[in-house]
Write a structure and sequence with these properties.
The chain is of the alpha+beta class and 133 residues long. The chain is built from two helices and nine strands. The strands form two sheets. It has a seven-stranded antiparallel sheet. A two-stranded antiparallel sheet has the order 7-8. The relative contact order is 0.22.
Amino acid sequence: MSGDAQPPERGGPAFRSFEIDGWQVLVGKGARENDELTFQVAQPGDLWLHAAGFAGSHVIIRAEAGEEVPRTVVEQAAQLAAYHSKARAAGGKVAVHVCRATDVRKPPGAPAGQVQLQRFHTLRVYPQAQAGS
């Protein structure tokens, strides 16, 4: 399979669905949908991505616990996270936080879409609508 993301498919009301090199990537559509994607759809072993410091979509790469997602897939999913955020208009590279879904928490009383991360690393990528393009 090529490195290009396949066009979005109808994944339900909460997210868009992409395929990158055989890996399913889900992109939230709004703050409430981000919460649903992160806390109801995502499994503990999935990777979670989000543009650092900007409002934007939560992105999930489906993975089993302990399964290593190839760096190229993570980078392309990070490009999607940057594109589906307010950082897209900022120009240049965007910092994107990456962690396991199990490391994402909802602070008590926090508004929809707001989360805290326990452990994460950061990638810097250019926003792209379709990864690999």
